[in-house]
């Protein structure tokens, strides 16, 4: 057990207490929290070098992309370096299609969450799938490890095909680059290095499918490794052909693969022309239906205005016939009948009216007044009972 409890300098017994482990600094603790966040958010992530480099495979639209996360020595005070292979075209990437240049990385601080940042990157790749950068058939990242960084053992991945080893004496400038504006003026790697010896995926034949805006896929003809037409020519003839551009162009035009592409192009042009003619024939019908829709919309607008007016009228009538409105009207009518009876009584007392006329008109007004008051009281009782019933529910 001396491997767990080391002996003292004086050769003491194995029961002596073990030497305490050095405590982690604040920067190391923050770094470990970021690494734990990265692991908990992505269970498929692989550790290439402990606390330094991690790799996450990601597949979208049958394209496998490796997302490499490199943590500098002063991380998280320094920003992480996130790169991808193979190089891709995407609005989050730099011009070379290698490094992620989104604001989440450029604005990285000690309070950022690395796991959430990688998840946001994956979500954006799902929403806007990237495409392979052209003319990149080899792995261009030949970086040197910084001084003082211990070497790590390359790890194989069973889900990735083996990638051919690179030439160690090959410089970055000699790597072929796409003709679409990708340059190698910018250093391809930070000073503290990146992966060099790991197996990486090779672009599959599915990446050679040209996808159009309408979703149509076109597979380019297979280019053979050798051309039988040139095997019968001698080296001087091949040299002369290479120097004479018109002969070389003629030989190129006669290739069956190019002829096949030209034939396919002509077929596509014809099919597009036929489709355009059919669309033009449908234009009158489409215009008639469009006019019908406009007429229906105008009719709908008029019916909607009429409906809104009737709904307002219905609301006004319902408000005037509501229980509270009827009660208020009964109360006002009873008060008016009472005032009229009082006026008749005053006229009688002043001698302006005969007794027979007084009795008939006074009794009539008083009867109306009492009937309206009784109806108003019954309506009030009904309203009270209705409100109590709803309150109990």
Automatic annotation (TrEMBL):
Component of the ESCRT-I complex (endosomal sorting complex required for transport I) which consists of TSG101, VPS28, a VPS37 protein (VPS37A to -D) and MVB12A or MVB12B in a 1:1:1:1 stoichiometry. Interacts with TSG101, VPS28 and HGS. Component of an ESCRT-I complex (endosomal sorting complex required for transport I) which consists of TSG101, VPS28, VPS37A and UBAP1 in a 1:1:1:1 stoichiometry. Keywords: Endosome, Membrane, Nucleus, Phosphoprotein, Protein transport, Transport. The keyword Protein transport applies. Residues 1-21 are annotated as: Disordered. InterPro entries: ESCRT_assembly_dom, Helix_hairpin_bin_sf, Mod_r, UBQ-conjugating_enzyme/RWD. Belongs to the VPS37 family. This is Vacuolar protein sorting-associated protein 37A. One of its GO terms (cellular component) is ESCRT I complex.
